[in-house]
Structure formats: C-alpha cells, structure tokens
Amino acid sequence: MKVSLVSRKMFNSLFARVTGTVLFIGMTVIPPFHAAVAATAPSLGGAEGFAVLAGSTVTSTGSTSVTGDLGLYPGSAVTGFPPATYSGTKHVGDAAAIAAQGAASSAYDTIAGQACDFNLDGQDLGGMTLVPGVYCLLSAPAQLTGQVTLNAGGNPNAVWLFRIGSSLTTAGSSSVRMLNGGQPCNVFWQVGSSATLGAGSTFVGTLLAMESINLTTGANLSGRALARNAAVTLDANNIAISSYAYPSLTVIKSVQTFSDPVNDTINPKIIPGSVMLYTMQIVNSGAGLVDNNTMVVTDVIPANTAICVANSCSNPPVSFICSSAPPCGLTYAYGSSVTYSNQPGGGAPYAYTPAPDAYGFDPKVTGVRGNPSGWFSGVSGGNNSTFSLMFKVKVK
Asked: Which among 213, 243, 206 is positioned nearest to 228, based on CA atoms?
C-alpha cells in the first residue's frame, strides 16, 4: 500500500504571508506587524563561528559543553577546559580572537544605532509575545521571569533586536520560545553592561555584552555568548551556535484488524467483511516548523476494500490525534480537513463526494487526503512533535 506525505513547503517558507489580526488569549501581546518595523540583523563577521568569546577570562565549572569556537582577547586565562569541552578551536590572543572581538564590537554598535520600534522600559519580558522588531529597554535593567515568546508570523527571516541600556538578568528556569518559524540565529541582545542567565534557564540568541556574561548552573544557550571587555563564566551549561532550523518528517503507517463478521472485535481475523483500522503517524524530529496550512497527507485505498465515510461506521470517519508534549500545533475538522478521490490510482483531484452504503462504507473511493490547519511544530524538550490520521476500511 502506498503512502504519500506531501508538504507544499517542506522547509520553512522563504516568503511570509501575514494577514488579518493576530490574537493571543491570556498573554501580553505587542501589536501586530506594521510596515515601519524593519529590524536589520548585524553582520557578525569574524565572530560568526565563536560560541564563547570574552575580553578578560573564560571560566567554566563542571561539565559545560560548547559547540563552536572558544575565544579570548585581550585576556589570556581560560580555565575549566577540561572537564568542559568545545567542538571548535580555542583562540587565545591570536589573530582570529582579535578579529572576532572587532567584529563583535561592530555588531554591538550596529544594533545600538537602530531606531526603537517598541519601548519596553521597566517591563519584565516574561509572559510577552513579541513580533519582529527593535525592542528598547534603555533606562532600567532588563528582566525575564517565566517565558517570552518570539512570534515570527511565518517569516523565517524575521529579526529581533534587543537594545538594553544596562544589565540583563533572567530568572531560574525562565525561557525564550521561538514560534511560527522564528530562528534563534536572528535574535540579538545588545547589553550595555552585563548579562546573567538564571539556573536552569533556556535562552535563545546572540548575547553581545559590553562587560561580562554569566551562565549560572544548568543554563542553556542556543546562540552565542560574546563579552567585549570582561569575563564569560560558565557552570555546567550547554552553549551551541544556533543555525537555521528545518523540519525532518517521517511517516509511520500501521494496520490492525478491528473486527470481523464472525468474532466482532474479540480476536478478529482478516476475512471478507473484516474491518481494518489504518493509522498514519507523522513525526517531526527536526527543530523547524512546517509552514502554516501546508501539511498534507495522502493515502491510496487498498484494492478490494471500501473506506468508511459516514459516522455510522466511525465518528468521525477519519479521526485525528495531536501530540500534547510538545503540542503538534495543528487543528482539525473532518468536514474541512479531509477530501476524497475516485480517480484511478487514488490521486488528484480530491473532489469526489462520498456516497456511503447502508453500513457507511464507499467502495468508489480510491484515495484520501488530510490537510490539518496551522503550523506543525518541531521537536521540543527532547520530544518529537507528532500527529496521526486514522480511518477504517472493509475487506470485500
């Protein structure tokens, strides 16, 4: 039996289409996109490959893991490696470290020179959902308690710049969440003094601090820690340079005998009149999302069977299950999400209106198409995002 998994944009779209009003219930929302918002990501130049870069010292305690280069200039003391590890190259006082510090300074100044789109002075970022743009917190220290969500609205090239006049502090177990195609590599935090990430927190983006950067116990950073003048201090952290995230989709199809006309549902056998239950599970094991309303699954109905198309044999005839941890992000309504084909081979067009028999089955259906709405989420917290479509067929 043939299964076809179709996503009109398997990777995040290069073009965004944002229409209507964005509504979020139970959270603070910065107003929707407008033409004046045009944050420009700075070039990191020679600092691009550095996950950690400091001015005075780099110090680690415990089993820190750094994915990327490790750099220091003008200081010379790097301690705690090992047991801490780095995947790239260590540059201490060499030409690469000097160039990286120069590039980090240039990026810092580029961000500082961009006009503010939104003023969040004195506000805790926790609980907010922020669209792309330049956010200014210039007169008071910046704080994050809980979760802040960065909503790209379907634009994978969306950029967030945070201009912070003094310090940045995140509470323990706080987090930055990317939504609707946002990329960690397009998030930048320009910090006027020092940045401290709380224990067990999850942070996203490139930190460009004038002074020090301190990752307390168990804090994780998807991005870079680039300190211009002072130290980077680590404690059992994971730091990885963020790159463009793509979805990775897998189809798992299974079939079981649901009932037969002799045994009903008790130890049923495959005989004429048996009802078979097909399940198609779609797994996204990548970090990227599948674009809004583009997740399409098709299947050819096996020969010598008839598919259930009425509530009398299954309610609804094609059912849907969405993972909860993490939420798959999709919504489903049988009447609008499922269409049928009666074409030879079970393919397009999916324009056939089913005609159920007395038992709810239609032998003229040759193919089924499911198109749940929304964004199909990526892996989160080490768990894959999944959804399943299920339908029944009767053996002739």
From this structure: 213
Residue 393 token pair: 């067929």
In this structure, what DSSP letter does residue 289 have?
P
Kindly tell me the burial class for residue 302, based on how many C-beta atoms sit within 10 Å of its own C-beta (0-12, 13-18, 19 or more): middle
Map 229-263 to HEC letters. Answer: CCCEEEECCEEECCCCCCCCEEEEEEEEEEEECCC
**Alpha helices by DSSP H, 54-119:** 95-112
Give 197's strand partners: 215
Phi/psi of residue 11, nearest 5 degrees: -105, 165
For residue 245, give both structure tokens: 């995230």
- Cα torsion 119, 143, 212, 187 to 10°: value is -60
Q: 137 with 264: CB under 8 angstroms?
A: no
Residue 45, phi-psi category: left (phi > 0), alpha (psi -120 to 50), beta (remainder): left
Residue 363: is the preceding peptide bond cis (ω within 30°)? no
Contact 352/342 with Cβ under 8 angstroms? yes
pLDDT in tens, the chain (396 residues): 333 454 333 333 222 222 222 222 222 223 333 333 569 999 999 999 999 999 999 999 999 999 999 999 999 999 999 999 999 999 999 999 999 999 999 999 999 999 999 999 999 999 999 999 999 999 999 999 999 999 988 787 899 999 999 999 999 999 999 887 788 999 999 999 999 999 999 999 999 999 999 999 999 999 999 999 999 999 999 998 876 667 889 999 999 999 999 999 999 999 999 999 999 999 998 877 776 678 999 999 999 999 999 999 999 999 999 999 888 889 999 999 999 999 999 999 999 999 999 999 999 999 999 999 987 888 776 789 999 999 999 999
Kindly state the tokens that stand for 312. Answer: 């009398």
Peptide bond into 82 cis (omega under 30): yes
Question: 70: which 2 tokens?
Answer: 């490790």
Query: What is the pairing mode between strands 69-72 and 50-54?
Result: parallel
Residue 144 CA, chain-centre distance (Å), reads 20
DSSP state letters, 146-170: SEEEEE-TT-TT--EEEEESS-EEE
Cα dihedral value 257, 371, 32, 25, nearest 10: -30
